[in-house]
From TrEMBL:
Organism whose genome encodes this protein: Sulfitobacter sediminis
CDD domains the UniProt entry points to: TM_PBP2
Lineage of the species this protein comes from: Bacteria, Pseudomonadati, Pseudomonadota, Alphaproteobacteria, Rhodobacterales
PROSITE patterns reported in the protein's UniProt record: ABC_TM1 (PS50928)
Classification via PANTHER family: PUTRESCINE TRANSPORT SYSTEM PERMEASE PROTEIN POTI
SUPFAM superfamilies: MetI-like
Membrane topology: Multi-pass membrane protein
Name used for this protein in its record: ABC transporter permease
Alphabetic keyword roster: Cell membrane, Membrane, Transmembrane, Transmembrane helix, Transport
Amino acid sequence: MEPRSRSFYVLTAFFALFILFLYGPTLTIGILSFQGPGGGLTFPMRGVSLYWFYDLFEQQAVGDIWGSFRRSLLLGLMVMVTTIVVSVMGGLAFRKKFPGSTVLFYLIVTALVIPSILISLGVGLLFSQAGVNVHWSTSGYGAQLTWTLPFGLLIMFAVFNRFDKSYEEAARDLGASPWQTIRHVVLPIIAPSLIGVALFGFTLSYDEFARTLLTSGSKNTLPLEIYGMTTNVTSPVLYALGTLTTVFSLVIIGLFLAIAVWANRRRAAKGNDAGKGMV
């Protein structure tokens, strides 16, 4: 076995520092959330307990933690479903050139580079001028779609760019209608990618701050509520909330990954069964 070069150890150390930079703040908050009743917002820790997690479920003097969590969860699900549907429809539409397709593509991508706070301001003003109430379920929903849809569409563009059209041709030769071809052939094949789009849609919506800041109305989503609490909550209960929301995000990611693995295994098993049937 060849000895490791100096550059290997330098790059390994650099990567370790990069990982520490990424996850160090989250780990710090997680550690500080397990302090005792007399704990503060900084080190050193004063005891170890679950006190602040219990306190989090008590009636808080300020803020609406669980109401904002429910709003963020519902908004994330709304954005996720819309992102999946529109992304698939857009991916199917862009498989063929049509007048204005290039301009439309660049307009979609441009939404990713416009400052998020300007999007929030513009959407809020648009709804106000149109006489529609600025609310997290209307203007907030629309503002977040300007963030999630471009990602979903770019994923679908990549998926359909390498999609083998011979599967669709075979289905049509067997008498399948266009809808049956999409439902029984296209969607099962791209199912893992749809899970990726769903994950993007939900997670980007769940923790979005800037595009929701001026479009949520009088009811905060969870990121806005946490930001508001930083100005008037001076106990580790804020860290406990951050730890729970981080765990919730990781659970959601793990759930989507498990679904993706299950879908891949199910598709592989069906392929093997079909091959055995032909033999």
